[in-house]
Amino acid sequence: MKLTTTDAAEMNTVNALVVGASGIGKTTSLRTLPKDQTLIAASERSLLPLKGLGFDVAKIDCWDDVRGMVSDLRSSLKVGDKTIKILAIDSLSDIAELCIKQIVHTDRRKMIGERTKGKSEVPIGVYEEAMTIEDWGAYGRRLSAFISAVVQLPVHVVFTCLERWKEDKSTGVTMLVPAMSGALAFACPKYFDIVVNMRNMKADEEAEERVWQTYNDGRILAKDSTGKLDKFEATDWTELFKKVLNGKAKK
Question: With 0-12 CB in 10 A as exposed, 13-18 as middle and 19+ as buried, what is 141?
Fold first, then answer.
């Protein structure tokens, strides 16, 4: 199956973010992507639900892996003889943690060591594991640059991310948003064409009916910039891409 459009006026690539609670099925939903076109970037732990399914995988266990992956994909979209058309990253939450680890344990120590001419590697008055204002600034810039670089690749992109309740300081409204620190929780959806929240429509968790909510109801942060999706969609990436690339916009 080709995930490309025949209409020049339509979108060439789609960038999507699926947000949801731990265990809701975000990673498992990636099984609905075509194996012969997809590269999945994830940590060893995240890959367990996809083990043995035949997907090409890029393992991400540190921030250098993150930067290396983007650099490699900018140079070539080939994996062996296969051309990558879809990049799935599982998950943005894990990458944010790797970014913080890189800043606190590597970059900050190096920077303070240079500033103090080797006398110290820890900021004065701050616990070693704590983030400073300067660190948070670096975190926001790096993750924003990373997301921007990925969605500009000439491929379809799917990110997964954990969810969390967070108050928007500018409005005072508390919403269910991507589990990112600082303003990025509300800002990161701007990089994506589609942001869906994965949820169980059944009150009884044993009677599961998992769907993707595609609209912002004031409590759940979601969006459909394409105008082609229903308020709730089945958790199938191939069908969603078909609908977005080849379907008509909703009235």
Answer: exposed
Please give the angle made by the CA atoms of 241, 246 and 247, to the nearest 5 degrees.
95
Residues 6+ apart with CB under 8 A from 102: 62, 63, 64
Are the C-beta atoms of 248 and 226 separated by less than 8 Å?
A: no
The residue type at 95: I
**φ/ψ (deg, to 5) at 168:** -80, 110
Strands 78-79 and 82-83: antiparallel
Q: How many whole angstroms separate alpha carbon 55 and alpha carbon 17?
A: 20
The answer to whether residues 16 and 161 touch, using CB atoms and an 8 Å cutoff, is no
* CATH code of the domain occupying 15-246: 3.40.50
In the predicted model, what is the mean pLDDT of residues 169-198?
93
What whole-number distance in Å separates Cα of residue 132 and Cα of residue 113?
A: 16
Nearest to 14 by CA among 75, 73, 77, 87: 87
Residue spans per domain, the chain: 15-246
Q: What percent of the chain has pLDDT over 70?
A: 84
Q: In the structure encoding, which two tokens stand for residue 213, read together?
A: 């909510």
Distance of alpha carbon 108 from alpha carbon 122, whole angstroms = 8
pLDDT value for 8: 32
In the predicted model, is pLDDT for residue 207 greater than 70? no
Whole-number Å distance between alpha carbons of 197 and 199 = 6
